[in-house]
Amino acid sequence: MGYRTAYLTILAHLFFVVILWGQQSGSIPQVEALLQKMTLEEKIGQLNLLTPGGGVATGAVVSKNVEVKIKAGQVGGIFGVAGPERVRMAQKLAVENTRLKIPLLIGSDVIHGYKTTYPLPLGLSCSWDMELIQQAARMAATEATADGIMWNFSPMVDIARDPRWGRIAEGAGEDPYLGSKIVEAMVKGYQGENLSAPNTMLACVKHVALYGAPEAGRDYHSVDMGKVKMFNQYLPPYKAAIDAGVSSAMTSFNDIDGIPASGNKWLLTDLLRKRWGFDGFVVSDYTSVNEMIAHGLGDLQEVSVLALKAGLDMDMVGEGFLTTFKKSVEEGKVTEEEITNACRRVLEAKYISGLLDDPYRYSDKERPKKDILTKENRKLARKLATRSFVLLKNHDEILPLKKDAKIALVGPLVDNQNNMLGTWAPTGETKLAITILEGFKSVAPKAIITYAKGANISDDPEFAKKVNVFGERITIDERSPEIMLQEAVEVAKSSDVVVAVIGEATEMSGEAASRTDISIPESQKKLIRALVATNKPVALVLMSGRPLTIPEEFGMPVAILQVWHPGVEAGNAIADVVFGDYNPSGKLTTTWPRSVGQIPIYHSAKNTGRPAPENKFQKFKSNYLDSENTPLIPFGHGLSYTSFEYTDLKLNKSEISQGESIQATVTLKNTGNFDGEEVVQLYLQDMVRTITPPKRQLKGFKKVILKKGESKQVSITLSANDLKFYNSNLEFVSEPGEFKIYVGTDSNATLSVSFTLK
Ligand code: BGC
Known about the structure:
By secondary structure, this protein is of the alpha/beta class. Among the domains are: 1-27; 373-598, Glycoside hydrolase family 3 C-terminal domain (Rossmann fold), CATH 3.40.50; 644-757, Immunoglobulin-like, CATH 2.60.40. 32% of the residues lie in helices and 17% in strands. The protein is built from 23 helices and 26 strands. It binds beta-D-glucopyranose.
């Protein structure tokens, strides 16, 4: 680095230090001046977050009550309102009617794209591509801010090892290392370099904490977890979001050690603020303060006091803060100072996002047509979808298909716009989605394609009713299942190859969508069996928001391409991969169980004192009478149309001291017939330590492109921190001794090498 560059770098650093220092809680003069002028009621008003109806409001900008409350200075933010004009109207209500003219925060759930919906977060995580994930978040922020929204209730970073839990769809899977990297990319993508720029938005890490570990996989259920497991396995992604500078955090619905997150002082103050140094604001989840009444902790006044004292700043929808705090101050149950502190943090967010200088910063009516659903955005959504697909198996190299093949395109999800976007896409529009039928016709215009629905997603009308809450997701056909099946079989028989698009409707996963049976519904299983019985080559395109139990289908002589719910470009992206325009490279970020009985199942489980012998039952060992221990499909798995060979794993040192890093290098060769991408994965085993170690843990990965026949040396560096863990005293330490490194194509990687930490 030249003298001049070094000088500029130091200056740039100083600049950021000054900016960050300037943004630290309690040090923004504009906010402090405002606080000086505010009455107790005005401060309480800032802690109130309302929604005039949820989703995108289609009628008046806000419902009557919300409007009245905004004018009365009783609202700090709203969500469920979009569009620059409507947002401008809402801001005007606040700015022109209240004494101190404080604008509103406008929030939304932009979970996987705003209008240009891209794959579910769980799908996107399978790309293992941090640059691409950051780009996705950037696009979402650009679109959302163009529509007036400057606060995003994302990223959701709850580690989930129980696919019964429907919200596994919204996170990055089971692994804290990968989850942390993904979260960092998302926060950077949403927040950009400068939060007051009109195309960046405040991110909100959620749901703090442990929401992904409810008992029995049932949504909102209790969580019971020891601190060592919490710190090592479940908390790292929340911390990573904070380290990446996330501006806000949302509490979870569950309790932790008997205290719901929204009233949990250990969580919100001791851990988040004191230990992790978080200085953004904390918002409750939807009515989660009030829900502490049902949890059994007291009446609305009591639970609101509990929440504030725990460190919660903003109350979502429940209005417990709004309606009880004045009384609580009068009765000495909370102090005005405690309310001021919460208010300060909300105002600081408004300052950081530039609202205090210009309430209409996000209300430019020219922006939507320039920034939303552009050609480039749809192109990116298509690319993101192709990167999220995981080729689970490819019997006889059925895939990719020839573009002039005679194809039977069969299944309830083939010609079905309603199920392409996936759960939690409240700002997306199903009518914009490309169906599989359309995608196939446009990517392979010379193919002869015959379509048959073949089956209902489910034949059960009661089940369909529960799933169809946001619109028709499961349509039960007027024809009988037998007639549909017969039609599909005939279509299959007269084609060269069958592509069956089957799986879950979008609302079969997501919030309050837990399942005890996570197999493909029986109606579709029958269809798959009948198609395979025709002896035609069959490719299953499997859609779902979670890992499914598919031992029967996985055992069939078929190809299986897992596509999650791919978003607005679904059909095009699926056709790109099915016809080989893109060679799939996705890798699972969750373990796929053989049966629900194995759950929770994850790659970083411990050895136990009685490890089972491989593939063999042994009495008094840790195994099952009726199942193998191994999953059906391991974490990290994903095939390509080409094949890769790993050889010659080496380390640059055989011994290191505390604080040093170490580098592993492997030779990777593309040994197949296609150019392709591979995610090289590194797993670490700590051989001996003072608390029981996992069998192996993901500690590094690299996505590499290789031409067919090409070889590359791929190096991955383990930092000193990668060898650390939280011990019984919750100190983050590494302990001397032997470590083993495994490198390969999935979590079963066998190529290994050892080193010693002195
Ligand atoms: C969800 C949150 C979401 C909030 C606001 C809740 O039901 O748990 O993830 O951000 O609603 O829409």
